[in-house]
Amino acid sequence: PENPRAEEASGRLERIALRGAERGDAVAELARVLTADSPPQERGIEAGVILLETADRPEEAASYFERSLKGQLPEPLAARAAYYLGNARHRQYELSVASGKPDRDLLSKALSQWLKVARESVGTEWGSKAHINYIESRMSDWNDADKLQKIDEFLQYYAKMPEKWRALALKSELLFDAASAGREGAAGSALALCEEIEAGDAPEEIRKDALLRSGYLRKLSGDMAGSVGDFRAFAGRYGGDGRVASVLFDLGETLFAMKDYGGALEAWTSCMGKNPPRSLAAKCALRIGDCRYYTHDFASAAAVFGGFAGLYPESGLIDEAAYRQSLALERLGRSPKG
Fold it and tell me: Which pLDDT value is given to residue 71?
């Protein structure tokens, strides 16, 4: 189009060098935004969001947000630009870490930006987003009591806003760790939070983690059947998750403890089907042999244990497999060398 705005958009696209098929969506979106019939500062904020979230160009994005913030903006728009400026600085920090040269100044700028928005826009969408970003990024700086205090303070303001799910997820993770360390009462509190998350409209990733924690918390509390239900639900819904193999192994362990050897065998066989790390595969192989043994299929058990060293020569479980083979052979009236 032959108009000044189109020429301006073309120039900006050229300057940020967004070329290549992988950035085609970003180019198209930027062209649309920069030629839109809206105030320049609003177009600048929209362009910055695209550069940050679609093109992963945080430095260029930050310049758009900064320019927009220099003018007079309505409060919600200013809060949005400031929030995204914090996100851009934090992304720059992440990239600096990935390069092996962490720039703590960028992290400090991101935290300061989020804290400013959180304080100046309390009770708003952008205030909630900035506040929870700040909390998540500072978790490693606080002790557990301070972490819980900060999260509870957030929930006092934002208990009815979408970002509450991120806060509840953080709190459930903290209480899960406390329960795993044996802190009295923590398991029940953590499980209640997980159930609240699962029953609500939390984002799928948060609901997935809550379901997984529920399984381990129920097992920790002695609810083996409930644990089995959660583990099976997780494996069934999220078969592509990288943790599924470990979950299937733990499902097998739980079923084995319940003397459901058929169910345990199925779980460990499924675990093997997920191509787990060799250390986990070795454990599965040994436990599959155990299932054969406990179901009185001693010949199969002896074969599994006898072939273990050849399949997993690096494993520290070889001696254990040899001992279990001797037990299975004894049941067959034979000796390991017989």
Answer: 85
- Which comes out higher in pLDDT, residue 23 or 305? 305
Neighbours of 109 (CB within 10 A): 19
Among all chains, which residue has been given the structure tokens 């903290």? 174
- pLDDT tens for residues 7-27? 555 544 444 444 343 456 777
Which residue matches tokens 């254990």? Answer: 320
Q: Average pLDDT in the 136-151 region?
A: 96
Q: Where are the alpha helices (DSSP H) in 54-185?
A: 58-69, 75-98, 104-120, 125-138, 144-158, 164-180
Using alpha carbons only, what angle is made at residue 176 by residues 170 and 181, rounded to the nearest 5 degrees? 135
Listed in sequence order, the residues at least 6 apart from 123 whose beta carbon sits closer than 8 Å to its beta carbon are 157, 158
- Whether the CA torsion 59, 62, 66, 67 is positive or negative: it is positive
Euclidean distance between CA atoms 329 and 71, whole angstroms? 83
pLDDT tens-digit series, residues 101-134: 999 999 999 999 999 999 999 999 999 999 999 9
Contacts of 89 by beta carbon, 8 Å cutoff, 6+ apart: 58, 62, 106, 107, 109, 110, 113
Contact criterion met (CB below 8 Å) for 286 and 320:
yes
Spatial distance between the Cα atoms of 15 and 234, rounded to a whole number of angstroms: 47
- First-to-last alpha carbon distance for the chain, in angstroms, is 88
